[in-house]
Amino acid sequence: MATSWTVAVTRQIPEAGLAPLREVAEVRVWEEELPPDTEALYAILDGCDGAITLLTDRIDGALLDAHPSLRVVSNFAVGYDNIDVPAATERGVLVCNTPGVLTDATADHTWALMLSAARRIPESIEYVREGRWKTWGPLLLLGQAVSGATLGVAGLGRIGKEVARRAAGFDMRVLAYDTVQDDEFAAEHNVTYVPLDQLLAESDYVTLHVALTDETRHMIGREQLARMKPTAILINASRGPVVDTDALVEALQNGTILAAALDVTDPEPLPADHPLVTMDNCIVVPHTASATVQTRDQMAKLSADNLIAGLKGERPPASVNADAVLGN
Ligand code: DGY
């Protein structure tokens, strides 16, 4: 039964999210491949009660002031650094996200990146495709050992923990850095918390799973890269600005570290002629760590459930400011 709610969805998302929305609201979907620019975003949100937004949409105080009818912003992502949450809270706007449903997909993909970089899989595929494969060679495309190596997980939250758990299958020593410690998880999964500098110095693989905040922006810069082993590989599946791009280019060009594998970059997207894209010792994929059919269906469903609950004045299944907006 349709109600008088109007909601915007700022990109095409799986039907699993659109169908429940259509049952309760008039739904406006931004159908283009590229995100709406600011003007188009303001226009599509005009008069809306709620919206499913993406990490490419900047939601700030000015936008919320210009759209006083907007009561729920349901982000189609676990990360919500595109939203000024304090500004939303101040205006009584609920902000929701999609934790949990993308944890496994992102952890799996992190491992895909790690193994691909370690064993030089993209270079190997290119080698064969280019017709350069003449014979088996003892020195051909040698990579780095994964089994038995040391894995450093910076940010041992939901995703970091799943990445760490998977390391048991590779008999790895696992180090972790985080500002809060889960000692029970660490004991159960043989993870040792260490300061960031120690993690960087001792790890063969450093994988980043922190949220982007003022504190984590450029958490990996020149100084941190210099602490890493020359044989180390950096994996970033968090947010691009956690790594200083220029410093990483330099480190990869100078041999400060061996290689990098990036699901996220700064800026995003990177142009095809950017050094990180063209260098053999860097793998860049287009922010697809959570991109499985199953996970995207679940993200769509959860973001719709969040939005509908918020519109009904109920506590959404996953909100980052419900306590402040609705009260405990
Ligand atoms: C997120 O959810 O924050 C990812 O970056 C996209 O899945």
Describe this structure in words.
With 328 residues, this protein is α/β, with parallel strands linked by helices. It has 2 domains: 131 residues, Rossmann fold (3-Layer(aba) Sandwich), CATH 3.40.50.720; 182 residues, NAD(P)-binding Rossmann-like Domain (Rossmann fold), CATH 3.40.50.720. Helix content is 37%, strand content 15%. The protein is built from 14 helices and 12 strands. The strands form 2 sheets. A 7-stranded parallel β-sheet has the order 8-7-6-9-10-11-12, sandwiched between helices. A 5-stranded parallel β-sheet has the order 2-1-3-4-5. Strand 6, helix 7 and strand 7 form a beta-alpha-beta unit. Helix 1 packs parallel to helix 13 and helix 5 packs across helix 7. The longest helix is centred in the C-terminal third of the chain and has 19 residues. It is globular. (2R)-2,3-dihydroxypropanoic acid (DGY) binds next to loops.
